[in-house]
Amino acid sequence: MAQAATTPLSDALSDPVQMGWMQGFPPPPDKRITQPDSNFFSFPKLRWSVCHIRELVPTAQVSRGLGAPTPLPYALDESIDALTFTPLNSTSTMTWQDALAANYTDGVLILHQGRIVYEKYRGCLDETGQHAAMSMTKSLTGLLAEILVAEGRLNDNARVSSLVPELQGSAFADATVRQVMDMTTSLAYSENYADPNADIWTYSAAANPLPKPAGYTGPNGYFEYLQTVHKADQHGQQFGYKTVNTDTLGWILSKVTEKDVATLLSERIWQRMGAEQDAYMTVDGIGTPFAGGGLSAGLRDLGRIGLLMLQEGSINGTRLFPDTVVERIRAGANKQHFAQAGYKTLEGGSYRSMWWVLHNPNGAFAARGVHGQTIYIDPTAEMVIVRLASYPSAKNASIDPTSLPAYQAVADYLMKAEQTP
Amino acid sequence: MAQAATTPLSDALSDPVQMGWMQGFPPPPDKRITQPDSNFFSFPKLRWSVCHIRELVPTAQVSRGLGAPTPLPYALDESIDALTFTPLNSTSTMTWQDALAANYTDGVLILHQGRIVYEKYRGCLDETGQHAAMSMTKSLTGLLAEILVAEGRLNDNARVSSLVPELQGSAFADATVRQVMDMTTSLAYSENYADPNADIWTYSAAANPLPKPAGYTGPNGYFEYLQTVHKADQHGQQFGYKTVNTDTLGWILSKVTEKDVATLLSERIWQRMGAEQDAYMTVDGIGTPFAGGGLSAGLRDLGRIGLLMLQEGSINGTRLFPDTVVERIRAGANKQHFAQAGYKTLEGGSYRSMWWVLHNPNGAFAARGVHGQTIYIDPTAEMVIVRLASYPSAKNASIDPTSLPAYQAVADYLMKAEQTP
């Protein structure tokens, strides 16, 4: 029953319960997912691991505080499942429901005008679980930075080395905070997950909280690694998606506030948005939260993040930060800088403060993470979609064709439904 | 400024903020507490580590669920600080307040008739933190077992091997579940933390979720280790405090319920007692929660556990389990079996279902953990005391002299105050 390397197991066949991962006391050896030797982040193990990160590595709490959560209101609409759309580069249509399996969806939430109209849990996730947010973590780090900018506590024109002297000898030294926030730094650094020699793997080795292998002489942790990154060309010329920018931004935030990113995220957002669950962040070997990708959180809590962005900084009648924060993010960045990076599924877009801005007619913008994670905010349709997934391959370019048109179809439907009550 | 080996730093001098542990971005190398080489569980690092276990090792969530917490009512009594008592083996008196520093207290909560009369956070702990419960975890595992016994789902007269066939060749095979619950198994196993060759350290190596050292050929995880424990003499003859009993009990619970102990603790207790915070448990390399000592939890949530025991299974007007569960625990076990173990500070006591029963005039019983952890329940005084600490040495025999008489003094005071309103 060998699978061809190019044909991963289907959504149904790779379901983690179906696969039997980590079931039994003890689980049979061939059904265990462990650190460090079982490659827990590879498909199909990934379908279990995305809900169990904390059981595999050390993590820092993102506390929701101690008060009562503020429940999200419901107005469920069962007709969403039957909505159809045409995937990118396709001629036949697909239903919303079919797209769930096509995308190896673990959880999906749709909010319209602040109410939950659709909610589904699949795979490893349920409503009490937390799912890896992957690079959506970046958007929260970027949001925290924009908040500090709006408060005048962080000057986005400052040189990074003026805030983090340890980065003096690195590529980041003469970059501005804004260039880091918008990822227009020019770094000699490859983040091609498909290339086993890419710098991202050296970075991962430095960041791994487990003991370093015998003879390891590389950097230990994010902060040491960032100091080793070299400059490629002039900063500010084009967008280049590199996670190290976000960890540099996290370091900047910690230098400015004297708090780690997990604590900031708790104090500024999680404790104030009516969250139902604590979230958490993975940490490196010296306790630094992974600002570029370490968050795990509940589906509805990520929905609250989306609402907060849709509602320009307010939720449950409470303002968490100035509306200018969202306005600046939503406006996007330089489209020419973005175009040079060649994102075929996001043509005409830009990347601003670690958020993906589509510049489409509805003004949508999104947090996005590998393997299919998204918080998609459509201000025109007053819609938020959160989708958590464990798609076999990392690249969203494979996932967007059955996702972005689906989100637009839901937006169109919700706007139409609104007009014909 | 070298300290003599026998004179640990004082409470004030070992305060983790004062010591500077893990402060700064990054913390200076000599102020880091990391896995695996810095011996994070040794004093004075312990004073930081007890509040940060999850940042050092993988953990499983003990979910509080998603509802609103049920706040505990307050009736604070400032005069408790000045209460005096005479420490065991002492002639001079000490105040309650002075006992806090003497015990390296991180958090203490006193409940009287269901209301908080005293609450203090010190050291690494605050009200949003979780502190290592250490062996108090055992009492929760024992409580879960008693609940299943009361429900008829677990026969405490059954042989262990009938429930866990994997233990057939081990010391536990012909022990009854009750002997495991009361720790009257006879095991060739040493748990003297002061002895570097004690079996507890082999056990710890097996349980460590980090990768095994090169050449390691020992057992991996709790379940494999338990199978290697040999019998010493006949079971049921005397009490012998050995953590492996609790992990065997945890395995039994999982075989019976098909759920791990963290999930059981969440479903049976944490989701139903109005908890404010999730708790968590450390796990071994195959994801097994440490039933014998892995819990970390918030101070007030441990107070809720105490209330639940004081109120014989009910809290906030909800019954979580039959009152017979607490009655059976509180009644204690064979005092002769206990006496042979030679606990000088607990003479006349017994150990029942992983709870310490004092058999004192007030009928007090307690969960206890090394380095000074306790949930102390005094049914006569309608009092619960939770004390979380990071005392330099593990043994409670060093901590009891300034603890047990202090608890009695508070009980006496509360009963007297009640009579003279």
UniProtKB/TrEMBL annotation, chains A, B:
This is Beta-lactamase family protein. It comes from Fluctibacter halophilus. Residues 107-393 form the Beta-lactamase-related domain. Pfam families: Beta-lactamase. Gene3D superfamilies: DD-peptidase/beta-lactamase superfamily. InterPro entries: Beta-lactam-related, Beta-lactam/transpept-like, Diverse_Enzym_Activities.
